[in-house]
Amino acid sequence: MANTVTLLCCVVLAAVVAYAQRRNQTGASIQYELMGGDVTLKCGSLDSDASVTWKVNGTDVKARHREEGSRLILMEVDLSNNGLYSCFQNPNGERRDQINLRIGTSPREPTVTCRSNTYPKGFYCSWHLQHPTSIPTDFDVTVLHNQKSLEVTRDVVHKNRCHVQFPEVFSSYPYRVNVTAVNALGKASTAITFEEFNIVKPDPPERVVATPSNVRRLEVTWNSPSTWPDVEIFPLKYFLRYRPLIRDQWQHVELSDSTAHTITDAYAGKEYIIQVATKDMEIGTWSDWSVAVYATPWMDEPKQIPSTTEQELLLETTPPRPLPQQSPIGQVSQWAELHRPYTSSHPSSGPPVCCKGP
């Protein structure tokens, strides 16, 4: 008996919550209607022949409509008919009801894709609607493998994504993912089936760096994607592409289990754009390209500046420079000419005699 009472209370509580969710903060009920059709709004529990006045967002209703007693009929509604409709009973003008009208469409089949960038841990599936519904739409996701339902974890960041763990590795059984879009106006489903090796696609390489090493060389290095669980057990191979900005044609290099490459045919002084992709050695598809990096080889070989020790050794082994060449014989500088001491114009064979000795 106690269990029956508890169950009844839960049912009543759920009904109250559902009713409360149909009301906004102003106490108005929410009414969803299909775009393009005629919509009938009823003024609460008033008789169908009661006299009422309708307002939308506090003003007169200007859209195409007609009034039949306590009912308001809107013609061929679209998004412009969204709003808060209020009805007032005549003649005292007492407000009797409020309706929050929301125009939209039923969902069409969602587009669903699945991918494993953490192989062999698991995979994730994403979905979206190609045509918006203009009203709240939820999604129900189920995943089956070998006739068993797998646990589905919704992503905390991406609302239209879920994560699934692989129940086993190298399974020969396919996976079936079904996504159903549901709103107040209808629902639609999409189901896809795949084998695990068809959805393996790593994330792009990370921390790509390109450094010039001479006029023709660029040293390129990168890291494996951090989301890939075990490069040792499930090794990756890489695909590098590069081109100078002055040309549109890419050059490509495929590398096995290496995170570095030297470009040896670069044009000196021309800026290059470089990207790297990766994939599992055995299965899956190539990742997207990494973020582009840019580098420019040297225009000229850099000059080597000798160290202090090398400079001192160079001075010891270099002979001294000769002094500037002296003036030719017989050529007397102007200064010497002006300061030369006086002598006779007829010099004798010996030194001049100034006086006789005793």
Automatic annotation (TrEMBL):
CDD domains: FN3. Keywords: Glycoprotein, Immunoglobulin domain, Repeat, Signal. Residues 36-87 form the Ig-like domain. Pfam families: fn3, FN3_IL27B_N. Residues 106-203, 204-302 form the Fibronectin type-III domain. PROSITE patterns: FN3, HEMATOPO_REC_L_F3, IG_LIKE. The keyword Ribosomal protein does not apply. The keyword Signal applies. Residues 318-358 are annotated as: Disordered. InterPro entries: FN3_dom, FN3_IL27B_N, FN3_sf, Hematopoietin_rcpt_L_F3_CS, Ig-like_dom, Ig-like_dom_sf, Ig-like_fold, Ig_sub. Residues 1-20 form the signal peptide. Belongs to the type I cytokine receptor family. Type 3 subfamily. This is Ciliary neurotrophic factor receptor subunit alpha-like. The lineage of its organism: Eukaryota, Metazoa, Chordata, Craniata, Vertebrata.
